[in-house]
Amino acid sequence: MSVVNLSKASDWLQAVNMLPSLSELHLHGCGLVSLPHTIYSINFTGLSVLDLSSNKFDSPIPHWLSNVSDLTVLNLANSSLRFFSYTAISNIHSLCELHLSHNFQLEGQLPSSLGNLTNLHILDLSFNNFTGEIPSSFANLCQLQTFDLSFSDVRGEIVGLVDGLSRCSTSSLESLVLSENNLLGGILPHSLGGLEKLKTIDLGYCSFWGSIPSSVGKLSSLQELFLSDNQMNGSISETIGNLSMLVSLELDYNFWEGVLTETHFQNLSRLEHMVLSVSESTKWTLVIKVNHDWLPPFKLKLIGLYNVLIGPQFPTWLRDQTELMTLLLVNVGISDTIPHGFWNSCSNIGYLNFSNNELRGQIPKNIGEQLPKLRVLDFSSNSLTGGIPSSIGMLKELVILFLQNNYLSGELPPHWKNLSSLSILDISNNGISGNFPSSMQYLSSLKLLSLSQNHLEGKLPSFFRYYTGLRSLDLGGNKFFGNLSASIGESLSSLLWLRLRSNSFEGSIPSQLCLLSSLQILDLADNYLSGGIPPCLGNLSTSNDEDHNLGFQEMLVVLKGKEYLYTSILSLVHSLDLSNNKLSGEIPDNITSLSKFINVNLSANNLNGKIPENIGNMHDLESLDLSRNELSGPIPKSLSALNFLSYLNLSFNNLSGQVPFGNQLQTLNDPYSYEGNYLLCGPPLLNKCPGSETEPTGSPGEGNGEDDRDGNEVLDSPLSFYISLAIGFIVGFWGVCGTLIIKTSWRLAYFRSFDHMKDQIYVFIMVKLVLFLRKIKLQRR
Fold this sequence. Notes:
Elements: E1 3-5, H1 12-17, E2 24-26, E3 49-51, E4 73-75, H2 86-90, E5 97-99, E6 107-109, E7 122-124, E8 129-131, E9 146-148, E10 155-157, H3 159-166, E11 175-177, E12 183-187, E13 200-202, E14 207-210, E15 224-226, E16 231-234, E17 248-256, E18 258-260, E19 273-278, E20 286-288, E21 302-306, E22 326-330, E23 351-353, H4 367-370, E24 376-378, E25 400-402, E26 409-411, E27 424-426, E28 431-434, E29 448-450, E30 455-458, E31 472-474, E32 479-483, H5 487-491, E33 497-499, E34 504-507, E35 521-523, E36 528-531, E37 555-559, E38 562-566, E39 575-577, E40 582-586, E41 599-601, E42 606-609, E43 623-625, E44 630-633, E45 647-649, E46 654-658, E47 679-681, E48 706-707, E49 713-714, H6 718-742, H7 744-780
Parallel strand pairs: 1-2, 2-3, 3-4, 4-5, 5-7, 6-8, 7-9, 9-11, 10-12, 11-13, 12-14, 13-15, 14-16, 15-17, 16-17, 17-19, 18-20, 19-21, 21-22, 22-23, 23-24, 24-25, 25-27, 26-28, 27-29, 28-30, 29-31, 30-32, 31-33, 32-34, 33-35, 34-36, 35-39, 36-40, 39-41, 40-42, 41-43, 42-44, 43-45, 44-46, ...
Antiparallel strand pairs: 37-38, 48-49
Helix pairs in contact: 6-7
Subcellular location: Cell membrane
Main location: membrane
Keywords: Cell membrane, Glycoprotein, Leucine-rich repeat, Membrane, Receptor, Repeat, Signal, Transmembrane, Transmembrane helix
């Protein structure tokens, strides 16, 4: 027996000792924690395969490994090596395969001694924590067929490696995988075209820049070219069109420029996957320009075009792509209708995304029959009109449906029962009317439901309680009415974002909403809610669940007096907005427990009492609006502890005392933040507080005020000032004008005297003007 394959660690050494010679030793997943440092009785000289993967070694690789002179395969993948010695391995000159991937414990610089393994065919060092550059000695590995350093934190450039390997008398490299090393970059060397046997180039998610060298067109065996998410710029070489064996081409998320013509695709008859895009900041710098009647040489299964200009007409060459499974044409400048004939080639499509264009017309009525395998449908941000076809209810595999930001009208389709897999439904910002169809109760898999900014009406349906996995509910900007259901808090325990603003809800805020311990956004603004604010709202967002990103979620949030659309960073936003309702009572002290919240807006209600003293505990607060209420008392000094506060509105309340100052509040010097609080004083208000250093001083103890140096009394409170102002207005205005209005004879005498005065002023001016002109005339003589 020359092969040993053990699954348990017990007595493995004794079992091996019974064998006179060994060609293969497999100890995969045995739970080994160590290897013996010396072995005398085992003849390992004929060992060609040693598999020590998926163990838990807490010891270095033993030195006896260097004596295994015939070893061709060494697999240490998933071994969780805590210590590692490259010395033993570097002496095994006949080693053909070295797998050290997925260890995560391997760190430090890659040893140049590995370059001595000149017979190595496979070198897999992926998923580790290396530092430094790829050693120059690796350029000596002329027999190397597979080189994988992905996810390994290496840095520097690859010019030396590629130049060296291309100079080998017979280049053997077939797979070059260096992806997911964001500090690895530089330009792609021209010598890349010298690696004639390359089948795979994967340099995605690194920092390469410049253009693709034209020499790549010489790689006649190349099947996969991945350069996604780099800093590549310039034009894409036409020699790409020479890669007749190419199957997958992914050049997305770079900074390409120029025009792609039919030449770029002329020989790509085997191409199945094509993904091209430029950065959002440089959209449409790359253009695909082909003849209207062009017939591509390929039959693609996946097309992904982002921010690449292919419009304004809908590309007719897509009709010929009858094997499509994924089609993404996002922000590609199409302002056209979709030809009816196009849908005949879509029966295999599972992912269809036409978002962010100017598509016109209507969604085909029989879309459910034409696209039976559809899982993702995205028509968002276009100019589509008409209704939502009822046949959408036939798409049994549908998971995501995006129709937002169009001009769709009519009611929601009646048939939803078969869409039990639907997870994301967004039809916001359209003209949809009516109420919820009863069949929507079967959408038990929903995680996101957004129907905001439509004309929907009625009460919230009771079947919402079946949406137990719902994480985002946005019904804002509609005509819903009635009380808020307590079942939202009782059943939707996974809810993160709840937006019901700008409707006609009434009644009190149910305390059951406090059960939503993961809730990050609660927006009930612009309704008719009454009663008090539940104190338990301070319990919101206490969950430690960090998996809050749905990947597709977007929501409008009113922050700092403006409306913002949050998308990718929505999971970082914590906001409470109860503004413009009829809420009364005091602000609960427990609100200050919302330490993660960046926005609190309770404005335009009937709230009274004081601002909570511990408001400074909300240390992440950026925007606070308590304006247009009946709040009284002083502004808490703890407000000055809010270091991130950049918007504050306390206007039109009954607040009194001195405005706090210090720290961040010094930058918020807008007096309008405190407008309408007549008993407030101190900067940035013009009203000075009694006893402040900036006030003029006089003899103390003289009545209720102090005299300034002109003998004018300085009032000791703003209230006295406004009282005297009112008295002056009554005496001055009504004492004179009032009598003129009431007594006719006085009114006539007043206007006659006014006319007489006008005549006197006119005569005076004319006399002075004549004298002035006469004087000028005499001076000229």
